[in-house]
């Protein structure tokens, strides 16, 4: 049975991903935050090292928005730790076993903000942009071992993360979508399943899943 390891499985997107990977076909390891805090490198090493994963999805993420000059230092560190450093640490823990098996797929959930940061979201945008560097580097480093690495920019999703976004701000964001609608967690989950199952020749790619046109 194939094995899925996912961080952020309790989140809006994580939940949708778990629904798309049924336990009848997949052995799932989706530790909650109190079992695996991705801001804790030692916990990541202890829990993930040598664990077998056919597919790893880093969906854990947080937002602590502020402009740089008003950004609390601890909040900056927390955003970097969860969105970026935790992703790199999880990859470092899982990759040796993937390399030994000659197979594996790492999927990182980045954000449109990585490429088009809105004003006041500097920490999140920086962390999500760093994730794209990680994807490209890991794809290059590990392709020869049969390991794939891809990034998803899921688009604006109505989840706990965006609950505080005002209707006015949402309307403004929607105006940038040429189709006039947001993506959904379920559609993102389906895309990840398709990417994993049906596109074995794809690695080192960044997939933007909405209708914002650059
Ligand atoms: N929603 C959007 O519009 C949007 C857009 C672009 C990208 N994304 C990205 O998509 C991913 C999923 O976001 P979402 O919308 O599903 O948000 P969400 O519902 O707020 O879920 C966030 C998840 O991250 C987990 N998490 C937070 N800090 C953690 C930590 N220190 N250790 C382990 N897990 C931690 C949360 O766990 P708890 O349940 O314990 O809090 C939760 O499972 C994130 O990476 C986010 O940046 C979201």
From TrEMBL:
Keyword Oxidoreductase annotated: yes
Entry keywords, A to Z: Oxidoreductase
Domain Ketoreductase: residue ranges: 2-155
Protein name: SDR family NAD(P)-dependent oxidoreductase
Family the entry assigns: Belongs to the short-chain dehydrogenases/reductases (SDR) family.
Keyword Lyase attributed: no
Cited InterPro entries: KR_dom, NAD(P)-bd_dom_sf, Sc_DH/Rdtase_CS, SDR_fam
Recorded GO MF terms: oxidoreductase activity, acting on the CH-OH group of donors, NAD or NADP as acceptor
């Amino acid at each position: 049975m194939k094995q899925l390891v996912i961080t952020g499985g309790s989140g809006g997107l994580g939940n949708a991903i778990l629904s798309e990977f049924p336990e009848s076909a997949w052995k799932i390891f989706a530790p909650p935050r109190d079992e695996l805090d991705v801001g804790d490198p030692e916990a990541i090493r202890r829990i993930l090292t040598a664990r077998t994963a056919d597919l790893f999805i880093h969906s854990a993420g947080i937002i602590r928005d502020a402009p740089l000059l008003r950004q609390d230092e601890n909040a900056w560190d927390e955003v970097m730790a969860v969105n970026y450093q935790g992703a790199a640490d999880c990859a470092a823990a899982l990759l040796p076993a993937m390399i030994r098996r000659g197979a594996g797929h790492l999927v990182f959930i980045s954000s449109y903000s990585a490429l088009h940061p809105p004003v006041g979201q500097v920490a999140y945008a920086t962390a999500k942009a760093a994730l794209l560097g990680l994807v490209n580097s890991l794809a290059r480093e590990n392709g020869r071992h049969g390991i794939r690495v891809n990034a998803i920019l899921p688009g604006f999703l109505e989840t706990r993360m965006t609950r505080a976004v005002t209707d006015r701000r949402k309307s403004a964001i929607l105006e940038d979508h040429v189709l006039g609608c947001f993506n959904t967690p379920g559609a993102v989950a389906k895309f990840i399943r398709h990417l994993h199952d049906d596109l074995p020749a794809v690695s080192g790619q960044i997939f933007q899943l909405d209708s914002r046109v650059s």
